Amino acid sequence: MAQIQGLRRAAADEKYRQMTGRPVRPLIIRLGIPAIISNLVTMIYNLADTYFIGRLGTSQSGAIGIAVSIMTIMQAIGFFFGNGAGNSLSREMGKHNEERAARLMAVGFFGSVGFGVLLAVAGLALLRPLVFALGATPTIAPYAMDYLAPILLASPAVCGSFTMNGLLRYQGLSSYAMIGLVTGAVLNIALAPLLIFGLGMGIRGAGVATALCQAIGFVILVVMCRRVAVLKLTPKQFRPDVLLVRELVGGGLPSLLRQSVGSVAAICVNLAANPFGDAAIAAMAIVTRLMMFANSVIIGLGQGFQPVCGYNYGAGLFDRVKRGYWFCVRASTLVLAAFAVGLSTFAPQIIELFRADPDVVRIGTVALWMQCVSLPIMGGNMISNMMQQTMGLTGVASFLGVCRQGVYLIPLIIVLPHLFGLAGVQLAQPTADILTFCTTIPLQRRVLKRLTVRKANVQK
Prior knowledge:
Blueprint: H1 2-21, H2 24-54, H3 58-94, H4 98-125, H5 127-133, H6 141-153, H7 155-169, H8 174-198, H9 203-228, H10 242-273, H11 278-314, H12 318-345, H13 347-354, H14 358-374, H15 378-390, H16 394-420, H17 422-459
Helix pairs in contact: 2-8, 2-11, 3-4, 3-6, 3-7, 3-10, 3-11, 4-7, 5-6, 6-9, 7-8, 7-9, 8-9, 10-16, 11-12, 11-14, 11-15, 12-14, 12-15, 13-14, 14-17, 15-16, 15-17, 16-17
């Protein structure tokens, strides 16, 4: 036992030296590449799923838009526990407090799985009224129920996977975190068409494939954590106390609010598109997934930055935090600008690839053009919010986390369709993105100024 503890202590010391001593840009890139690959493969699976289901019909495509709300809730639970425990975990490891970091990891993991069980029970018991509350039309509802039922059954594994992925990343183990998510997504891409078309299961086959592959990915992530993690995950470490839970909630609240409000916003978009028919719901669902694909690259870059930010902020190396932040902002802006040019140039062809319905293509093309206008500024919004969250600035991080979808999008999606009809539905998201960017700038300037002041105080 003493030998194992000695090895883990040596591993923790080596990780500390890497995170606080290596050049910031290459370190972020090295940690960010596995996260970017994970996110891209996951989004490729989502787009492939959208493509396969689109072969079945417009109502089936619309069912994806309904399911996004529930899957966002699962992500919210996973990110809440993963980021809540992970943000504090990285700062504690930067202070050499490995014992407390291990307790944070255990509380985050077992809490996530427990809440996943509650979501599965409640979701399956209320499935029919739930899909109508999420904005389904009578023609979409049966397909949404078929798709969601197996996914809800697997929600403990889904929530646990998002959490474990974050816990590994915050220890600087992005490559191992990637393996579980990528394996599940690749298997899903292969299994989904087999069940949908080969076995004739239709949209239910897509849901079953997702559930099975999420469970496989979850098992792989747990095994990775047990074998290679710097910190040891055991039920014995599940010893929550008031201070620890407060720390976890403070670190995870921005993610929970951001994802929960995102789920509500998705419902509002479905309800706003509902009067314009199944084609409008299907088109907005396709555009939403395309935007998620573009943003997944930046989220991966930010996930590479977060452990660097946490370790160095905990160690008092504030210049390294700022250098990493500005590198990520510049890189993300350039990448999203390139995505915006590509998506807007080939918008009709891209939408038609997922559903060759003239109404879906017409509505989706205009929505995609509008969202490409605001896409380049999204990098600054996301990186700033991820930095604030990792630093433990719960108030400002939570506020900015809900700005895009809650403070701005929900009111806009309620008001604009009454003023401009379908164009109001298409215009709401890019308008919310621009307003969020204008809100982020002054708040983030205060955060950066705070780092400068803290550095001066340390030097004194």
